[in-house]
Write a structure and sequence with these properties.
By secondary structure, the chain is an alpha/beta fold. It has eight helices and nine strands. Strand 8 (about 205-210) and strand 9 form a beta hairpin. The radius of gyration is 18 Å and the shape is globular.
């Protein structure tokens, strides 16, 4: 997909969980620089598993994943972490710092940004996500929508080249959803978003990978897939 620099490549990738259940089967895909790709599928089709594989967070049982031309290993994983931001479906899987401030600045501090720069980006992203009033609260005391905004802000703040998003509008109300969609729409980079919400994909992506309930790729194409009722029914999305 795409004619630009290849960022992520999956070659005959399958993944089985330790209990023997299937995550994905025989996945072949390429994500190129500037792509805005939707991983569309029903619950249980393997979208979340595929996001973890494409991020290098789990290793395939079969096949290989290359990120920036290399298979993830101990030597290059830190570079991958700096260049690719991952937003999990459940913010509680991500948030662990004592306060929202610490959460937002965790990676920038690891990157040893100067204090002046830290304070500037903190103000900018707190304002962008409208979370100034909760900046000193512990994440576990936030609402679901607030947690989601903090999670996304914590990823965007260190300016990754690529965003991998797993159900980015889960657990949020309508107002928060609009805020998140506005920010993600304006993201100037490569996006891969896993979602079963067709209206989210319609606004965020221009290429679609449709997964079926057999954990395989059913179809690859443009946004016309989002309007193909017969194909979506076959894949279990509708």
């Amino acid at each position: 997909m795409g004619d630009n620099l290849r960022i992520i490549e999956a070659e005959n990738v399958s993944y089985r969980y330790p209990d023997g259940s299937t995550g994905v089967r025989e996945i072949n895909l390429t994500i190129s620089s500037g792509d805005r790709v939707g991983l569309i599928g029903a619950n249980g089709s393997g979208k979340s598993t595929l996001i973890l594989l494409l991020a290098g967070l789990v290793k395939p049982t079969e096949g290989k994943v290359k990120i920036f031309g290399k298979e993830p290993d101990k030597k290059n994983i830190e570079e991958i972490r700096r260049r690719i931001g991952v937003v999990f479906q459940n913010p509680d899987d991500f948030l662990f710092n004592p306060t929202v401030r610490d959460e937002l600045l965790y990676v920038p501090r690891q990157l040893e940004w100067e204090e002046e720069r830290l304070e500037k980006v903190l103000r900018n992203y707190a304002e962008m996500f409208r979370i100034e009033q909760i900046i000193d609260k512990p994440p576990f005391r936030l609402s679901g929508g607030e947690k989601k905004k903090v999670e996304i802000a914590s990823v965007l703040i260190y300016q990754p080249e690529v965003l991998l998003l797993d159900e980015p509008t889960a657990y949020v109300d309508g107002k928060t959803r609009r805020q998140i969609m506005e920010i993600l729409t304006s993201f100037d980079g490569t996006i891969v978003v896993a979602t079963h919400e067709l209206n989210v994909a319609e606004k965020l992506v221009d290429k679609v990978i449709l997964l079926n309930l057999d954990h395989r790729i059913e179809a690859v194409g443009g946004k016309e897939i989002l309007h193909d009722t017969e194909l979506l029914e076959k894949a279990g999305v509708l």
